[in-house]
Amino acid sequence: MRGMEKTLHIIGGGLAGSEAAWQAANLGISVVIHEMRPKVETFAHKSGDLAEMVCSNSFRSDDHEQNAVGLLHWEMRQAGGLIMETAGEHRLPAGGALAVDRESFAAGVTKKILEHPLITVDYEEITELPSSGHWIIATGPLTSSALGEAIAAETGQNALAFFDAIAPIIYADSIDMSKAWMQSRYDKGDTEEERTAYLNCPMDKAQYDQFIDALLEAEKTEFHEGETAKYFDGCLPIEVMAERGRETLRHGPMKPVGLTNPHQPDVKAHAVVQLRRDNALGTLFNIVGFQTKMKYGAQATVFKSIPGLEGANFARLGGIHRNTFLNSPTLLDGQMRLKSQPHIRFAGQITGVEGYVESAAMGLLAGRLAAAEIKGEVMPDLPQDTATGALVHHITGGADAKTFQPMNINFGLFRPVEGLKGGRRGRTDRYKAYTDRAKNAWSEWLSVQG
């Protein structure tokens, strides 16, 4: 029984689960990975290997001085990350990006996991939440139906698996405030902050008509065979709304009522696009009600036609896909534990991060946190100024729980560095300051661990 209490169990052998197992085992913890494949297949996976990359073969930018993803790569390498190490061994030419041969990469991760003396793999499906022990759930966007139902029953979510159409997110400092303004509809709110909670971009009739035409003509993402367009509540794509009638958007998310443009107070807008702050720092704004399944190139063209967004810099473009994720700001604590069942941690994409790198990074962190807990050690708080810290802070409390959607790592999640210029002209110095600060904080955090 004492031995069982010291074992870490991980459900899911994807990028996050494999990384979590590697980190914990290298800290002296016995680990069991519970992976349902290949006995239980998914429509997306093609093999029974661990860490299979389903959507692409890229880990995106490897620039650790000017790119937040590259910085996350750097932090994972400094922590002895399995995913980054194996990616380097199976790297393909891809300019400044880190791309790999997917098959050899997954085979390489699998080989290392199976050869580790403290890790075993149990190829069976887990269908219920464990009632005791030390567990990490890292089942990703394709969590099995049975386990998904068990998680939903515990967390109170009506459904965890759905097609979500995600709205784009824009860097605040790339919005033209000579055309846009801050105002809540009808100036609602008890404080000035509430009365100016929305950023507004006005359109006249000609601009609105052109926008609707562009929406209807834009290339859209197609569904895979066997998939159906069952959207999550409130996530109907804007182009689907536009197909229902040219005035639908103007009477929905683009209604102009209750707003006065201070740049042209005597001109009534025909339609208004609203953006809402997406994080506590106010560095990111999402376009309200603008969930979309347009292809990325079309999105950039269509959305930059909106007055005030001509120079928009996107932290994330919209998209549509099957997803399974928690409302982490309400359900997880700062240690990534389920508040109602603290012996269970979550890691990877199910926590509300988006992307291979981000998922693996959350696995790395969860594995280290679980190992420290099992060993009875107290880990120092993870610095928020690191890439990993900024990301986990966002998903466990920095994001608005009411509008929480999966997020990639980006510099909009970082606390500003005082004295540095905003905007595009100052971003080289600003990004370098972010990465230098993060590297120092991450190195110090790692140095006090076992």
From TrEMBL:
<dbReference type="InterPro" id="IPR036188">
    <property type="entry name" value="FAD/NAD-bd_sf"/>
</dbReference>
<keyword id="KW-0520">NAD</keyword>
<dbReference type="GO" id="GO:0050660">
    <property type="term" value="F:flavin adenine dinucleotide binding"/>
</dbReference>
<keyword id="KW-0808">Transferase</keyword>
<comment type="similarity">
    <text>Belongs to the MnmG family. TrmFO subfamily.</text>
</comment>
<dbReference type="GO" id="GO:0002098">
    <property type="term" value="P:tRNA wobble uridine modification"/>
</dbReference>
<dbReference type="InterPro" id="IPR040131">
    <property type="entry name" value="MnmG_N"/>
</dbReference>
<comment type="function">
    <text>Catalyzes the folate-dependent formation of 5-methyl-uridine at position 54 (M-5-U54) in all tRNAs.</text>
</comment>
<dbReference type="Pfam" id="PF01134">
    <property type="entry name" value="GIDA"/>
</dbReference>
<dbReference type="InterPro" id="IPR002218">
    <property type="entry name" value="MnmG-rel"/>
</dbReference>
<protein>
    <recommendedName>
        <fullName>Methylenetetrahydrofolate--tRNA-(uracil-5-)-methyltransferase TrmFO</fullName>
        <ecNumber>2.1.1.74</ecNumber>
    </recommendedName>
</protein>
<dbReference type="GO" id="GO:0030488">
    <property type="term" value="P:tRNA methylation"/>
</dbReference>
<dbReference type="GO" id="GO:0005829">
    <property type="term" value="C:cytosol"/>
</dbReference>
<keyword id="KW-0285">Flavoprotein</keyword>
<keyword id="KW-0489">Methyltransferase</keyword>
<dbReference type="GO" id="GO:0047151">
    <property type="term" value="F:tRNA (uracil(54)-C5)-methyltransferase activity, 5,10-methylenetetrahydrofolate-dependent"/>
</dbReference>
<keyword id="KW-0521">NADP</keyword>
<feature type="binding site">
    <location>
        <begin position="12"/>
        <end position="17"/>
    </location>
    <ligand>
        <name>FAD</name>
    </ligand>
</feature>
<keyword id="KW-0819">tRNA processing</keyword>
<keyword id="KW-0963">Cytoplasm</keyword>
<feature type="domain" description="MnmG N-terminal">
    <location>
        <begin position="8"/>
        <end position="377"/>
    </location>
</feature>
<dbReference type="InterPro" id="IPR004417">
    <property type="entry name" value="TrmFO"/>
</dbReference>
<keyword id="KW-0274">FAD</keyword>
